Amino acid sequence: MQSALDPAGGDAQRIYWLTVIMTVGGILIFLLVTGLLLYAIFAAPERRAWLGDRRTIIVGGLAFPIVVLSMLLPYGLTVMRDTDVPTPGALPIEMVGEQYWWRVRYPADQERAEFSTANELVVPVGRPISVSVTSADVIHSFWIPNFGGKIDMIPGRINRLNFTAERPGIYRGVCAEFCGDQHARMAFDLIALEPAEFEAWRVDQAKPALEPDLPSLVRGRELFRMGGCGSCHVVRGTEADGQFGPDLTHVGSRRTIGAGQFPNNIGTLAGWIANVQHIKPGARMPSYGSLTGEDLRALAGYLESLK
Amino acid sequence: MGGRRTGQILLMLAGLIAWAVQFTAIYGVTSTLCGRGWADANLLGLEVVPMTILSATLVTLAATAVALIWSFRNYRLAKHQPVAAVDDFVSHAAVLINGLSIVVILWHGIPAFILPACA
Ligand SMILES: [Cu+2]
């Protein structure tokens, strides 16, 4: 589960401490003031008289707030300065919010070709990341609580968020702006890998889809073609080149399907294809309920084989 | 006597007026330059945005400090002679207002030393 209280990056750490200090400080001051208020109401007049002293007013009403605020102001400004800083040489990644999933694009650089995937933001640990976000339809919001900052994905506008993952792991990201009926089922994984693993992943993802090597998988690919899946989905290396839905070239390598909703295996893939509108009503993909059990297994098996 | 009272009240408000001047100078220059994308505009090798903030802060601080010293003197004088209740109040308030204005002007100047010009 995602949690903003378990920071895994520098920015999240800073925001976390800011939150702790403000909350604890606020509570202490609130208790102090409430205590004094009760004392002023209930204590005997001669005992509470000091509350009205000029000294009390100057110390408690002027000096104290001035000192506290004079410390908080530079502290808050420093947090602001050090959070979400663009770093030269950061790894650029592009994410597009779509109803109700995430398109993730790794742009080409000198050596590597570009490719797209979905619902998975894979990053190397220790290297600054610069995510550019936008939206294909309505406003979404990109938020990985363990990494701090949250940023709106606005159609026609590119926003940027900079962060560095400090320890390997899998963190959950969510859409933080209501975007339609399946808003709550719009999540993704941030997967932080060691740099070498990340490079290997990147090389694999840039390759075209694997050729099916079993008759049932060949049958699955045929069903994919006949079913018109390729009008919405890309499988690089085949004729499927639809841009509307998630890139499925390496769908079998992903942890989840349906934007973080179901573990990825042949059963859930089959369930998804036959029943999308039942398990994620309103998703922009039709259910294919008329496939026979055997065909469904072949089709799901083919997708699962696309590692 | 009317002139004296006007002077007293002006003195009482001096810090607030200085603060308003600093505020207008900082926000005016920063938002105009940053809004037009002239974040690192230079004048004789000095960066305009932080320099405006710094000089507006120093000038208004100095003015407020003078007002504070002056109002403190008035306050001491008023303490040692019988004065009307209004004068007593005004001389009191003048010290407080000018003192707080110093704090507030300082707070307004601090970001220039921490954040980049158009953060
Ligand atoms: Cu959304």
Overview in brief:
Chain A is an alpha+beta fold and 307 residues long. Helices cover 38% and strands 20% of the residues of chain A. In chain A, the strands form three sheets. In chain A, strands 3-2-1-5-8 form a five-stranded mixed β-sheet, with no helix packed on it. In chain A, strands 4-10-9-6-7 form a five-stranded mixed β-sheet.
Describe this structure in words.
The complex is a heterodimer of chains A (307) and B (119). Chain A is of the alpha+beta class and 307 residues long. Chain A has three domains: 10-82; 91-205, Cupredoxins -  blue copper proteins (Immunoglobulin-like, Sandwich); 215-305, Cupredoxins -  blue copper proteins (Immunoglobulin-like). Chain A has helices at 10-42, 45-48, 54-82, 195-206, 215-226, 266-279, 293-305, and strands spanning 91-98, 101-106, 115-118, 120-124, 129-135, 140-143, 150-153, 159-163, 169-175, 187-193, 256-257, 262-263. The longest helix of chain A is centred in the first third of the chain and has 33 residues, at 10-42. Chain A is elongated. The two termini of chain A are 25 Å apart. Chain B has one domain (3-114). The radius of gyration of chain B is 18 Å and the shape is elongated. At the A-B interface, α3 of A face α3 of B. Bound molecules: copper (II) ion.
